[in-house]
Amino acid sequence: MQSCYDRCVSRAVLVLLALAPNAYGDGWHAGLNLRVDPGTHPIRAGIGLERGSTDVTLVLDPMFFTDGQHDVDLYAHWKLSSAGWSLLYGWRTTAIGLQGGHQLQEKLLVGVGAPLPFFGQLPLRARWSFELAALVVKHGADLPREWISFESGRDFIDLFNFGMFVTFEYESY
Amino acid sequence: MRATSLAIAVLLGGCARPDALVICHNANCVEPADPAQDDTLDALRESLALEQAGRPVIDGVEIDTFWRGEDGVCLYAHDLDRDQTPAIEPANELAAYFARSGPITFGDNPFHVFLELKSHVSADKSDLHTPAERDLHAACAWQLYTVIADAAVANDRDVVVFFSAFAPDLLRSVIAQTPSVTPIPVRLGAIQGVPAPLDNQTRPLDEYAGIPLDLVEFHAQWILDAQYEGVVSAGLDLAVFMFSATAETFAVIEQYEPSMIVTSEARLIRRWLER
């Protein structure tokens, strides 16, 4: 039987695949998603599709075996300028490994991105992104569901975290 | 070949499970986290009643004492937003807890009581104690200690009390009033929370000069490497606290390996530690 977490990942993949026909003309990209802040595991792998001004990426987490935590992102960059500055928006599901199950922490992502210079003629690209991750709800593992609240500062101050990541990817176009 | 095997083992191996005590933040650590119930007797009772595998989920509890300056009353409270309870009440609850049968901690370790002395004396966090109020607040904290210590001795329980504060002068007042006999161990802790300008309570650690600290407690998402190195080099215990544990919190615990985790979500943290 599929767990809630498996279903979430499956849906993210389906969303990405649904975008594929439209993206045929622009191409795809795949590579590493790296960060040094504690928002996710430091090394993850992403695959995405770009069409027009929108670039959608699914990021999976091969480091889940280190501590039972799995960070999955589905986000998009919406290009704002010809220089490549873009608005980042998306969703992150983090599965926290617990005794007897996983707690899922669902985060809304917003931020900005920009291309980084890359030397040579190889079909590679690098991109920097800055994000604000807002934890919207925790659920699962037979623990009570917990939604974000703004009743007092103590309710939400831990739930907003800034992060930065860079991607190094092969691109097909 | 040996080097290759080692490299593969490092790549495939998981991280070691942190070994930390679970301390109930603001005596309120039953999920879902609800800060509105911080430092209330109902939340304390529910937190002490949490069990996993036939043992208590927690290894200790943090209790806030608040000196209300306008009428000179010592309260069990995080702030002045709600009806207030006399400060001695949670000590009486702990005394009853020590008298029950069975274990009082998850592990085979002493039950840790953090007696925090709040820095301000009104709803305004910049309204700090006068020297006389500091002494009265410290005397109040020692009254709680006496109740807790008497119950621990009477019931043959292994208990340690940490006096903790954001304000070093409050700890100095506590030290100055140390009784001649302390039947259970007494420790001292400094709290480093969300930094200014977001919050104005935290004082630099160098202001604690001359205080024989045993512990520094940091907010998990605001700890800096230099602070961590300073605590370790001084031979002090490290604790982290949080209101709601996120992926960032767990990463910090894995990175800094605190000896205590002060949490509002006891079952979440316990099950993460025991995974």
Describe the structure.
The complex is a heterodimer of chains A (173) and B (275). Chain A has 173 residues and is an alpha+beta fold. Helices cover 16% and strands 55% of the residues of chain A. Chain A has three helices and nine strands; from the N terminus they run αβββαβββββαβ. Residues 20-25 of chain A have low confidence and may be disordered. By secondary structure, chain B is an alpha/beta fold. Chain B has one domain (17-273): Phosphatidylinositol (PI) phosphodiesterase (TIM Barrel, Alpha-Beta Barrel), CATH 3.20.20.190. Helices cover 33% and strands 21% of the residues of chain B. Chain B contains eight helices and twelve strands. Chain B has an eight-stranded parallel beta barrel with strand order 1-4-7-8-9-10-11-12, surrounded by five helices. In chain B, β8 (159-165), α5 and β9 (186-192) form a beta-alpha-beta unit. In chain B, α2 runs parallel beside α3, α3 packs parallel to α4 (131-154) and α4 (131-154) packs across α5 (168-176). Classes of the chains: A alpha+beta (173), B alpha/beta (275). The interface between A and B is medium-sized, with 33 and 35 residues.
Identify the CATH architecture of chain A: Beta Barrel
Helix/strand class of chain B: alpha/beta
Strand order, main sheet of chain A: write it out.
Answer: 1-2-3-4-5-6-7-9
Give the C-alpha Rg of chain A.
17 Å
**CATH architecture identity of chain B:** Alpha-Beta Barrel
Instruction: Kindly identify the CATH topology of chain A.
Output: Porin
Helix-strand topology string of chain A:
HEEEHEEEEEHE
